[in-house]
Amino acid sequence: MAEKIDGRKVAEDVVAAAKTGADRLKAEKGVVPGIAVVIVGTDPASQVYVASKSKKAKECGFHSVQHELAADTSEAALLSLIGDLNADPAIHGILVQLPLPDHIDSGRVIQSIDPDKDVDGFHFINVGKLGTGETDTAFVPCTPAGSMILIERVRGRDLSGLTAVVVGRSNIVGKPMANLLLAANATVTIAHSRTPDLPGLCRTADILVAAVGRPQMVKGDWVKPGATVIDVGINRIAAPERGEGKTRLVGDVDYDAAAAVAGAVTPVPGGVGPMTIAMLMANTLVSACRRAGVEPPRF
Ligand SMILES: NC(=O)C1=CN([C@@H]2O[C@H](COP(=O)(O)OP(=O)(O)OC[C@H]3O[C@@H](n4cnc5c(N)ncnc54)[C@H](OP(=O)(O)O)[C@@H]3O)[C@@H](O)[C@H]2O)C=CC1
Ligand SMILES: Nc1nc(=O)c2c([nH]1)NC[C@@H]1CN(c3ccc(C(=O)N[C@@H](CCC(=O)O)C(=O)O)cc3)C=[N+]21
């Protein structure tokens, strides 16, 4: 039976380190890290993440503000708010919750964020730095960064000699994940909806990352014996066994089947999700340290 990788526990360690860093920054420089989360519309799932981000920010002793804008907010109004946050010295990290409503060009919004405050790591400058190995000054997207820490706990920092397969090629998860694995010396393949024989390819992976958005797509016989399986997927499905109209969260991996074969697997919930929020705190602290001219801690 595979090890269940406890993302909640590792996330607690990261949050504790962010709090320690924030305490030091306050004591030495009088600087309080500040984060702004912007959400447009009232998607219930987004509300959950935004609430837990604010809760963790408070736990870390950060200054935290939330801007909840109506679903019909204009692009111009959103860009103007981002302009204000870019100029606000109390704010070190800006996160605009995605997806945005269809009438707003999310690319334009993301590129309007000051790259030095882009704690999501979605701005071209940060994407380019990650792609060229400038990871000392880049912001790395939170979900892949958190996934790498979980992989490190199982496999160590150097993945030389290991094969990795990333299923999914989105800009927010799949592509940055592949870049991080490559930077750690894994031999990386990126799979997507046009990849032939996905089960066979996945079976070659010492490290298998699923970031697809399809509930329990990865089956037990897709998993190489002993593999490290990172399940990024967050899918809400019907759970009639819990009562009429009830739902539950599952990942992109069939957990029980994968755990019978793998060496280690992340659960959903309690795996990558809590790490994403923890890395947002880490990135915000790093941003505040850089601005204050203090060497940031390594996470
Ligand atoms: N834990 C966390 O903190 C986070 C979790 N998520 C979750 O991760 C999942 C992925 O998110 P995201 O990257 O934004 O999703 P996207 O929808 O942007 O990307 C999904 C990717 O999966 C590929 N794909 C879709 N169907 C198949 C298939 N049948 N076989 C192979 N590949 C397929 C797509 O391929 P193609 O490009 O060819 O269309 C695409 O590259 C979702 O469940 C999301 O909720 C996301 C962000 C954070
Ligand atoms: N600009 C932007 N940045 C993001 O990082 C971003 C985003 N937009 N849009 C949505 C996705 C999704 N995402 C999650 C974060 C935490 C959990 C999380 O904590 N999940 C808990 C469960 C939470 C629950 O019970 O609903 C867990 O997996 O244990 C999940 C998903 C960040 N995203």
Automatic annotation (TrEMBL):
InterPro entries for this protein: Aminoacid_DH-like_N_sf (IPR046346), NAD(P)-bd_dom_sf (IPR036291), THF_DH/CycHdrlase (IPR000672), THF_DH/CycHdrlase_cat_dom (IPR020630), THF_DH/CycHdrlase_CS (IPR020867), THF_DH/CycHdrlase_NAD-bd_dom (IPR020631)
GO MF annotations, alphabetized: methenyltetrahydrofolate cyclohydrolase activity; methylenetetrahydrofolate dehydrogenase (NADP+) activity
Key word Amino-acid biosynthesis present: yes
Enzyme Commission code: 1.5.1.5, 3.5.4.9
Gene Ontology process terms (BP): L-histidine biosynthetic process; methionine biosynthetic process; purine nucleotide biosynthetic process; tetrahydrofolate interconversion
Tetrahydrofolate dehydrogenase/cyclohydrolase catalytic domain: residues covered: 5-120
Keyword Amino-acid biosynthesis assigned: yes
GO cellular component, as recorded: cytosol
Subunit comment: Homodimer.
NCBIfam families: PRK14186.1 (NF010783), PRK14188.1 (NF010785)
Record's protein name: Bifunctional protein FolD
Lineage: Bacteria, Pseudomonadati, Pseudomonadota, Alphaproteobacteria, Hyphomicrobiales
Gene expressing this chain: folD
